[in-house]
Amino acid sequence: MIANMAALGAALCWAAGGLIAIGPVRVLGSIAFNRVRLTIVATALLVATTLMGGWQTLDTGSALTLALSGLLGIVVGDMALFWSLSRLGPRRNVVIYAANAPLTALLAYALLGEALGPWTILGVALVTLGVMLAVALRSGSTHSWEAIQGSLLAGVSVCLLAAVGQAAGSIIAKPVMAAGADPIASAAVRVTTAALMFTAIGVLSAVRSGAAVTSGGEAGVGLGGLLVPSGLTPKLMLQIAGNGLLGVGLGMTLLLVGLAHGNAGVVATLSALSPVLILPMMWLLTGQRPALGAWVGAAVAVAGVALIVNR
């Protein structure tokens, strides 16, 4: 039950964080947004872990394992997800990315020996199907965002790569969490690794784009923009911090709590419910009721959750 509640809590954090992120992402772009928010969250988690003494639960091997988990789950997963988002549009992207839940279950069975009972398997299938239906049938929009840009096969393949990255990140972290690693310390290692990688990617991008390097070793506009991206205002900074601390900080910590206490496939499935949980939030904020098909998908997902929780 602890694992189930933690996974559902993570999904709720990601749903709420997603709404907060809309404005900053549109202004800054996904890469700069991710870099700023991960830096904020990494700093907060590092301070919290130090104050709470969580480092004592990690040895060098565990820290390296968690760093690899963050590299695959956050860096590779997020970069692939945002790349495919620009090609497929948000609805198709989320529908395909929902495959990360059954992929995690399959990897957990193959690599960790975590078998699922028949009712739990049915529950996982219903939740995944429900999430896909809730997103796919959310509206009949013909907005430009829904247009396919470039190769459909490339977009689908990269989105599946994002799902595999997320699933692999969870599977790699699972043994460390099950061994008693502190969730906040573990999240600190994963997020700090991702923040450093996104910063390194930004530096390489600035250098490759021909940013002017000063005698002091700073790449003018390029490297300056890494610290303070163009368009960043105090209001946007607060929104980014809120998204990061809620979605990444608390959400990831809850996900790791779930992995420490439960089956990786079940935790991944329940934490993937954010597209369903966001429906009533969007209705409340925008006043626009989601289409009937979205509620049908949500009902299917809820039925799957009931099977999992009461198995």
TrEMBL record:
Keywords: Membrane, Transmembrane, Transmembrane helix. This is DMT family transporter. The keyword Isomerase does not apply. Residues 2-135, 154-309 form the EamA domain. The lineage of its organism: Bacteria, Pseudomonadati, Pseudomonadota, Alphaproteobacteria, Rhodospirillales. One of its GO terms (cellular component) is membrane. The chain crosses the membrane at residues 6-29, 36-55, 61-82, 94-112, 118-140, 152-172, 184-204, 211-230, 236-257, 264-285, 291-309. Pfam families: EamA (PF00892).
